[in-house]
Amino acid sequence: MRLARSAVLLAVFVCAACGLVYELALVALGSYLIGDTVGQASIVLGVMVFAMGIGALAAKPLQHKAAAAFAAIELCLALLGGLSVLGLYAAFAWLDLYGPALIATAFVLGGLIGAEIPLLMVLLQRIREQAAGSAVADLFAADYVGALLGGLAFPFLLMPVFGQLRGALVVGAVNALAGMALVFTLFRRDLGRRSRAALGAASVAVALCLGYAYVVAHDFEVTARQQLYRDPVVHAERSRYQEIVLTRSLPLVSGGVTDLRLFLNGDLQFSSVDEYRYHEALVHPALAGSRANVLVLGAGDGLAVREALRYPDVATVTVVELDPAVVALARSLPDLRALNRGSFDDPGYASCTPTRSAGCAPRRRATTR
């Protein structure tokens, strides 16, 4: 009996973690696509908490079939939660319906999450009757600790390892597995033959949907991301801190000009057509006086460093950049290296050849921290 109660509380723990990940995934996607982090968080959390109350009330008539209802809710939550980021991305990229879609998604997910607790309470009490206060304490302790796990797993595990789209799909699979494992082991006798067959078939269908979505998620993201930018995307990656996207236009008819643009979390950082205006105005007035050692805060693209190294009396340039991935890109991508003129390379070796390398010595150095 103690083992059975522990299994129910473990299911509460896992479901709570999954529920919080769904919330964080919606907030993160909205912050990336819209940019208003406070507004997106307020909408998602407000709507979901409200819907959780509605879901808890809606679950009251289902308590006499708690096991089957809980299994069905977990399958719906796994499918909709796992596909939520994909669907919202599509709504933003192609349908221009992101706002209404976000509210509807948050409401449905919140309602399903809210319906879990009353049903789990019934299942917990079926194992062994206990005082209501004690049962609520056990249930909510597992729920809140699970929420902590979900809150930590999202930024430190799911996003770095799986990414935004696939991370939600993985959580959906875990959610379905936890719900089905609980119902088909401890509460199998509470299910009729038809219920077992229906839930088994639904489990297979959900697994196939989530699996297929996982396989095509990368291609979908590439296609959807391209919809967000005017020019072809030539590089895209999600670093620990942000999404980095580089686009390059096809040569314009007038003069064959190519426009290279850098976007961080969807915000334009520079356009190669006119970035020199900004960087010249930024750097040269500041270097009108003494300039032996230069400190640059940010500017991981190397364009400000390029301007600073125009002065022969500049000995060192130190760049302090939050995201090492931006600096790595500025050093490795040929188009960006051409634009910043290899500013992160030591110019003292710029004119050296293999036959003359013994006589070369570094004159200036650009370093990053």
Automatic annotation (TrEMBL):
<dbReference type="GO" id="GO:0016740">
    <property type="term" value="F:transferase activity"/>
</dbReference>
<feature type="transmembrane region" description="Helical">
    <location>
        <begin position="7"/>
        <end position="34"/>
    </location>
</feature>
<feature type="transmembrane region" description="Helical">
    <location>
        <begin position="199"/>
        <end position="217"/>
    </location>
</feature>
<comment type="similarity">
    <text>Belongs to the spermidine/spermine synthase family.</text>
</comment>
<feature type="transmembrane region" description="Helical">
    <location>
        <begin position="101"/>
        <end position="124"/>
    </location>
</feature>
<keyword id="KW-0812">Transmembrane</keyword>
<dbReference type="InterPro" id="IPR030374">
    <property type="entry name" value="PABS"/>
</dbReference>
<feature type="transmembrane region" description="Helical">
    <location>
        <begin position="168"/>
        <end position="187"/>
    </location>
</feature>
<keyword id="KW-1133">Transmembrane helix</keyword>
<dbReference type="Pfam" id="PF01564">
    <property type="entry name" value="Spermine_synth"/>
</dbReference>
<feature type="transmembrane region" description="Helical">
    <location>
        <begin position="71"/>
        <end position="95"/>
    </location>
</feature>
<dbReference type="InterPro" id="IPR029063">
    <property type="entry name" value="SAM-dependent_MTases_sf"/>
</dbReference>
<keyword id="KW-0472">Membrane</keyword>
<keyword id="KW-0620">Polyamine biosynthesis</keyword>
<feature type="domain" description="PABS">
    <location>
        <begin position="212"/>
        <end position="369"/>
    </location>
</feature>
<feature type="transmembrane region" description="Helical">
    <location>
        <begin position="40"/>
        <end position="59"/>
    </location>
</feature>
<protein>
    <recommendedName>
        <fullName>PABS domain-containing protein</fullName>
    </recommendedName>
</protein>
<feature type="transmembrane region" description="Helical">
    <location>
        <begin position="136"/>
        <end position="162"/>
    </location>
</feature>
<dbReference type="GO" id="GO:0006596">
    <property type="term" value="P:polyamine biosynthetic process"/>
</dbReference>
<keyword id="KW-0808">Transferase</keyword>
<dbReference type="InterPro" id="IPR036259">
    <property type="entry name" value="MFS_trans_sf"/>
</dbReference>
